[in-house]
C-alpha cells in the first residue's frame, strides 16, 4: 500500500483494499494476460476474466501464433478455472470484421500500410471491454500489454514505454484516450518477458511456454494479398512499374503485392540491364494510377510526415503547442527506436512531424507515435496515422523586404 496525500492506495493506485477492488482482466489466452490475472488474484483482488472472440475460431483453432480465437479461448478458460475466477467469453466477430478486418483490406488496397493492432485496441478492445468492465462493476481494466502507466501528478494518468524495451507495445496503444487511461492498468510494464514466463511457471499455468501471438492474427495463410483480394474484389489492378525519373521499367499485377521499402521480387532485372546496376526499392504506391514507383535507396528518405486522426494525451491540448514546434521523439514503426523530431499542430486537428534526420521506408497508413524527448522512460504523448510522407520538410517562408525607396 502507498500513500498519496490523505489517501491510502493499493498497488493499482486505487483507494480501496484489494479485496474490495474488482478488476476485469482482458484474457487473450496467452502467457502475458494469464500472468496478469494470476498476479492480481494472488494480491487478493476480486478478479474477473473476460475474453473477446474476434474472428472465426474454426480457421485458427490449430494454427500457432493466433490470438482471440479457437485454442486461445480454451486456454483462457482453463487458466481462469485454475485461478478460481469467473470467466466470460464475448462474441465480437461482427464488430471486429467491420472495424478492423474490412478497414485493413480497404487501406491495403489503396496502397497504404495499415496497423490493424492499433485499430483493434482503439475500436474493439478498449471500447467493448470498457463497457463490459463497467457493467460488471469493475474499478479497473487490466491487460497483458508491455507498457507502463502511472499518475501524472495532475489528477490523471500517463503512459510510458515498458521497462523491457524489446517487448514495448506503446506503438500500438497511442490511441488510448485520457478517459480510458483512468481505468486501464498494465501490471507487466515493469517486467521483462523472461520474468513473466518464470511467474507463469511458478503459478503452474499450462500456457507458461506458449509461443507469442502474431501481429496480424486474422490472416490464416500469412499472405495479406489473399485476404485483400477476397474482401476487396478488383483490388489487384495491373499497372506500370515506374522509376522516380519517369521511365516505365516494367509491369505489375497490382499494388497490393508491394510494400514501401521492398527491394526483392520486383522482377526488373532485364528492364534495367543496360544501366548502372543500382539497387531499386519501392518508394511509393499510387493505387489511383495503378503505379508502383521505384528508385534508389535515397529516394526512400522521409523528413516530414503529415498526420490524420491525431490523439494527444500529453499535458494541455495539441493546439497549445508552440508554433515553432515541440521537440519530441517520434516512432514510425514498432521495430524502430524513437527518433528526434519536431511536432507541429495543423489546422483541423491534424499535425506534422519533421525529423532531424531522415527516416527510411515510411508509408502512409502507418502510425507515428510521439514520446517526450527528455524522459528516460519515454512518456507517450500520443500519435496519429501517416497521411503523407515527404522527402524534405517545407522550406520556411522568406522574410518580407521593406521598400526603402519610399
UniProtKB/TrEMBL annotation:
ATP binds at residues 26-33, 52, 144. GO terms for molecular function: ATP binding; tRNA binding; tRNA-uridine 2-sulfurtransferase activity. Keywords: ATP-binding, Cytoplasm, Disulfide bond, Nucleotide-binding, RNA-binding, Transferase, tRNA processing, tRNA-binding. NCBIfam families: PRK00143.1, trmU. It is an enzyme of class 2 (transferase). Disulfide bonds join 120-217. It comes from Methylosinus sporium. The gene is mnmA. It comes from the Bacteria. This is tRNA-specific 2-thiouridylase MnmA. HAMAP family: tRNA_thiouridyl_MnmA. The record marks 145, 366 as: Interaction with tRNA. It is found in: Cytoplasm. GO terms for biological process: tRNA wobble position uridine thiolation. Belongs to the MnmA/TRMU family.
